[in-house]
Amino acid sequence: MKPEEQKAFIDELTRTFHTIHKPLPQADALGVWWTMLEPFPMPLVISALSSYLSVKDVPLTPAAVLRYLPKRRDERPEADEAWAIAVRAADERETVVWTTEIAEAWATAQPVFQLDDVVGARMAFKATYGRLIDHARAIGQFPQWVISQGFDAARRVEVTHDAVRNGRLQLNQVRVPELLLAGPDDRMSLNAREQLQQLKLLCQQIVGAGTQAATQKEQAAKEEREQFAEKKRALAEEVRKRGQEGGKL
Fold first, then answer.
1. Are residues 95 and 36 in the same domain?
2. Which of these three, 44, 66, 88, is where a domain ends?
3. Residue 48 structural domain
4. What is the per-residue DSSP string for 24-75?
5. Do residues 54 and 113 both lie within one domain?
6. Are residues 165 and 228 located together in one domain of the fold?
7. Residue 180 pLDDT greater than 70, yes or no
8. 194: how many CB neighbours lie within 10 A of its CB?
9. Are 108 and 164 contained in the same domain?
10. Which residue, of 30, 144, 217, 247, has the greatest Cβ tally within 10 A?
11. Would residue 74 count as lying in a domain?
């Protein structure tokens, strides 16, 4: 729908709610309705509202209307590909670019994986991942790709560059100074200045522009390892909690 069609959309929604003898949602809720249905043309939205009225088997929500609209590709990895991405996080040197659903599902599977039960971990992961993406698709939520950093600086550059090329990350997501810092084990192989140059070259290839230089920081190897490990532990705890909250939906 187009911005100028907002009033017409509200009018159609008002008629639909009146038909089922329900009050129109408050303004903030109407904003959610618009956000979720705005990607579809107005005629399709009107048709979907009419289709809902012919059934009325569930409460009138954006998700209920979305059932009658064409499915949109969201580029989420299938379960097997998602598992292949997630299991890389078992290696703390490895940088992983994954969706929030993959991260949450891995938080559920990781304790099982650490018991050397790979089959059980994969089953737990796929069950959780399937539930998470079904819910996200039902409410029209598109995937959010994020970075989980590893110790290996060379791999951080390689993985994030590939993610930008594949359209999974935006340039501003990799223009973070700490991404350019060498890990404790790779100062001899790839220092921060070389990584920055690689990132500049990538930006030139994609948008014809370079990135600004980042301040180089030197830290003791033990301290840096502890900081990275703490970040990963905090992320794992956060996604575990989010996974538990998602299970209550």
1. no
2. 66
3. 3-66
4. PPPHHHHHHHHHHHTTS-HHHHHHHHHHHHHH--S---HHHHHTTSPPPP--
5. no
6. yes
7. no
8. 15
9. yes
10. 30
11. no
Query: Are 27 and 143 contained in the same domain?
Result: no
Q: pLDDT above 70 covers what percent of the chain? A: 71
Residues in Cβ contact with 149 at an 8 Å cutoff, skipping those fewer than 6 apart: 95, 156, 178, 179, 228, 231, 232
- Tally the domains of the chain: 2
pLDDT tens per residue, range 81-134:
999 999 999 998 999 999 999 999 999 999 999 999 999 999 999 999 999 998
Report the pLDDT value the prediction gives residue 136, as an integer from 0 to 100.
83
| Residue 10 lies inside a defined structural domain of this protein | yes
- The H or E element that residue 122 is part of is helix 118-138
Query: Do 33 and 124 belong together in one domain?
Result: no
Task: Report, as an integer, the average pLDDT of 142-154.
Answer: 86
Q: What is the distance between the alpha carbons of residues 245 and 126, in angstroms, rounded to a whole number?
A: 17
183 and 61 within one domain:
no
Residues 110 and 199 occupy one common structural domain: yes
For 87-233, where are the E strands, in sequence order?
96-99, 145-148
- The Cα–Cα gap between 227 and 220 comes to 11
What's the chain's average pLDDT?
78
Structure-token pair, residue 24? 């129109």
Amino acid letter for position 131: R
Q: Which of 18-22, 228-232, 238-242 has the highest mean pLDDT?
A: 18-22
